[in-house]
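tool=predict chain=A
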Amino acid sequence: MNQTMQNIINQGWGDIASIAGLFVALIGFAITILGVWKSRTAAESAKKAANEARAAITRTEVIANFSSAVTAMDEVKRLHRTGAWDVMPDRYSSLRRILISICSSHPNLNEDQRILIQSSIAQFRELESLIESFLAGDESSPSSAKLNKIVTAQIDKLDEVLNSIKSEAE
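tool=predict ok
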């Protein structure tokens, strides 16, 4: 009887150990699932933060490019006043490149904003052509007052777009 009793006790402990092992495995599995879920949540948060940082950098670059464009336009106005026509084609070309960069580097511009920037690009292309014709002797001397009125209108358009981008960022 002693041997039989001992077999029953040993067998009972074996069953208990198996059941305990099952519980440990289930708890371990649950902890693993929880860890995977937390890792996924952390990865999604990191991805979101990276996207937000990327968008903020893009906005900053666009704002800096707008500032460069306005500065270049102010210089163009000064050069018009002094009649420095020989450097104007280069200034207009440089200004167009800045505006094209703004248009291509900021994918979130709406259609109206793109149209305003594209019209500014076209306007400076026309001004460059006008000055090139003057320098070639085909046109009479351009009026700096008229040209500055055009440039001022373009500055106003760009300010409108810039303010819109800044308000979207806030």
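The chain has one domain: 2-169. The radius of gyration is 35 Å.
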